Here is the input.
Amino acid sequence: MGYVISTVNMKGGVGKTTLSVNLAAALAKYYDKKVLVVDLDTQISATLSLMSPSDFAKVRKEKRTLRQLVNQTINPKAPPIFSTQEIIVPYVAKVKGLDLLVGDIELYDEYLVSEVLHEQAVREGSKNFEQIWNNFERVLVKKILQPVLKNYDFVILDCAPGYNLLTQSGIISSNFYLLPAKPEPLSLIGIQLLERRIAKLREAHPPDELINMQLMGIVFTMSGTLITGRYYRQVMERVNQDFSATKIFKTRIPTDVNISKAVDSFMPVVLTNPSTVGSKAFIKLTGEFLEKLKLVVGVKEQTKNVSLTEMD
Here is the structure.
């Protein structure tokens, strides 16, 4: 089963999507991993970083977007139109092993969700609507991903900024989450808000595995000239106070105009221009990501072995 990784921040404009697609592309292209990118953001930035607008329009016209899967999960009584596998677009950006679950500018109807869950609560005689909502939140993204998890080494969820239903469900469905941030004071607010929200999620949804919803690390993006400034030092001092060194990626993603230019070709910069400073940083970050994963999973396996020994 593949690892599910969310990239998420309460604040927008921190390079979340850029991190998602470049990490995914680097894993597939340079590390021979099978990767699925899932676009959970109605801005569809991840989708348009991996396919052209005309291709997206065609897929959307055929109703082969994430919206269909979300609607089928919201209303399970309706006959399914497509399976998850049928909606996935393979070999995006012409990279073998890099697939995309296409997003949509409209992913779900909030009124419909509330109506369906209210009907369920009435049907079950439940007075605790919050519990009904939490149960749905826990299974929404999991149900969509479950049929295809075995096909991938990694599933990377590009979550929307803020805190909507799909972002919450995506985090709950993840083994790990990545927290991209800019080296400026406002990023501290996004980090702190997200950690508080995730703490509440843990209270409402006890994880059934040791590594569920675990912070893989904070990735500083768009470091550029800010990296030597006073604000940068203040941010780093505060982050180092709040998080251990293992939770902060050593690799920083610099400001690089080629990263922005790559969007025009509907491909991540690690594919369009691998020799640039930005590309090299993303590729290096991907190696660090795999090393962190190896370390964390190794600790988990050791914990399992200790528990089994104690049982014996």
The CA atoms of residues 175 and 208 lie 11 Å apart. Strands lie at 3-7, 35-39, 98-101, 154-158, 176-181, 214-220. DSSP finds 13 helices and six strands in the chain. The chain has a mean pLDDT of 86.
